[in-house]
Amino acid sequence: MQGYNEEAIEKVITRTLSSAQKLIDDVNQNGKLGRELNATVTNVRELTARLNDLVANLQPSMVEGKPLIIGGATIPHNKGLLGHSDGDIVLHAVCDAALGAIAAGEIGLYFPPTDLTIMGISSRVIAEKTIAILKEKGAAVIRMSFVW
Length: 148
Fold this sequence. Notes:
The protein is mainly α. The chain has helices at 6-27, 44-58, 89-101, 107-110, 123-136, and strands at residues 62-64, 68-70, 73-75, 79-81. The strands form two sheets. The chain has a two-stranded antiparallel sheet with strand order 1-4. It has a two-stranded antiparallel sheet with strand order 2-3.
């Protein structure tokens, strides 16, 4: 795929999996989840292949001049996802699911696409706000999956 660097992707994925575990540990300070980061994908090469498939399917929604951010990690690619924010589809899906689970709406309620002051906002900021809302409601993430 044009713009795709498999070795660089593998390094980013390895860091992303570590970051995901840290995020889950941080959210669940009570340690219930511990080291149970349960991934269907068992190795970096398989995840790299799946990421390649995902990027291929997203091509119609990709634009030049924008970084490709998936799961909070910048993926080496020549295009990024079109969107009001950074376009991180993984963090958006996870945040919407978490907010929906506690009947707190969806991310557009807190970060409306009509608000031009937040154009290009990092999905990490959206995730931080989601975590704060979960904590306010006394909720915690027990298990999280993302499938594509």
